[in-house]
Amino acid sequence: MAILTMHLTIRRAEPSDYEAIVKIFSCPKVIWGTLQIPYPSVEQWRKKLAEPAEGFYSLVACVDGQVVGQIGLQTFPHRPRRRHVGDVGMMVRDDWQGKGIGTALMQAIVDLADKWLNLARLELGVFPDNAPAIRLYKKFGFQVEGTQVAYAFRDGQYVDTLMMARVHLPPK
Question: Residue 2 has what pLDDT?
Fold first, then answer.
C-alpha cells in the first residue's frame, strides 16, 4: 500500500485566492454545510479578499500550493461590549474533507484568537446534521449553547442551526 504525503500550509488569504475560494464555495457539500447559496460571485469574493472588513481575518489551507480550505474570523473592534468575541466560519473543498484540513484550519484560528487577538469567546453556527463538523468543533472545546429553530432555508426546507461557542478565559 502506498502512503500519500502532502505538504499542508496555513496562511493568510490573499486577494489572488479569490478564484480558488469561489471553486470551494461551488462544491455541493460546502453549499449544503454552510449558509452560502449556490453560484457564488467571483467579483464578490475578489472584493471581499482585496478589501476585507475591519476585524476580519481570513486564512487558507494549501496542499502543495493549492487552496483547499478557508476559515474566517470576524471580530468586533468597534463594539466595546463584544470586542472579546470572534465569529468563525469555515469550509473545506469536497474532495479534501476528512483529511485533516479542517483540523489544521481550526488549530490556526484558535491559536490566532488565543495567542494574538486576546479573544475570550469564539462562536459559530452549524447544522445539526453535520456530524463531522460538530465532532471537529467539540475537539477544540466548542459546546452547544442552543438551537435556532428554522434558522436557515436549505434545499427547499427550513433547517435548525446549533449555536456553539468556546470560552477561553485567561487564568486569574
Answer: 46
pLDDT digits (tens, 9 = 90+) for 81-127: 999 999 999 999 999 999 999 999 999 999 999 999 999 999 999 99
Instruction: Convert 42-65 to b/e letters by CB count within 10 Å (16 or more is b).
Output: eeebbebbeebeebbbbbbbbbee
Domain harbouring 94, CATH code = 3.40.630.30
Q: Is the residue at 159 inside a domain?
A: no
Range of the domain at 36: 8-123
- Tally of domains in the chain: 1
Alpha carbon distances (Å) from 90 to 77, 123, 156, 172:
21, 12, 23, 31
